[in-house]
Specification:
Elements lengths: L1 H6 L10 H5 L10 E4 L7 H10 L6 E5 L4 H10 L3 E4 L4 H16 L6
Parallel strand pairs: 1-2, 2-3
C-alpha cells in the first residue's frame, strides 16, 4: 500500500497504532487516513469516532481482513469514505484515495 501511494506522488507516514498517530505532528497535515478495522487497543472505527468527536475529521479509508456487514454499515454511516476488504485491489484503493482527497477539498457548510 505504501509503495502504491508513493507511486501516485503521495507523501506517506506509517504508524504502529492509532494512539501513535493521534499524538503525531503529522496528524494536522494528514489529507487521508487509511486504517485497519482490527488494531490493538483502538479499532479503526474507534479511531475515526475519536476524530469526529474532537472535530478533527480526516477522510478515512478502513480496510479489513474480517469483513462484517454491520461494521461496514456503521463505518459508512459515521462518514468513513470507503470500507475495503482484504486482499485489496490496487484500482479500488486508488479510487477510494481519489474520493477521499476530493472529499477533503470539497467545501462543507455555508460560506
Amino acid at each position: 500500500m505504501r509503495r502504491l501511494f508513493k507511486s501516485l506522488g503521495c507523501t506517506v507516514a506509517v504508524f504502529r497504532s492509532a494512539s501513535e498517530f493521534l499524538v503525531s505532528p503529522e496528524r494536522a497535515s494528514t489529507a487521508c487516513l487509511v486504517a485497519d478495522v482490527q488494531m490493538p487497543r483502538m479499532t479503526g472505527i474507534e479511531l475515526y469516532e475519536h476524530l469526529v468527536s474532537t472535530a478533527r475529521t480526516i477522510p478515512t479509508i478502513l480496510v479489513t481482513a474480517y469483513p462484517d456487514d454491520k461494521v461496514q454499515e456503521r463505518a459508512l454511516r459515521l462518514g468513513v469514505v470507503c470500507y475495503l476488504r482484504k486482499p485489496l485491489e490496487g484500482a479500488e484503493l486508488i479510487d477510494c484515495l481519489r474520493c477521499a482527497l476530493a472529499f477533503r477539498r470539497t467545501p462543507r457548510g455555508p460560506s
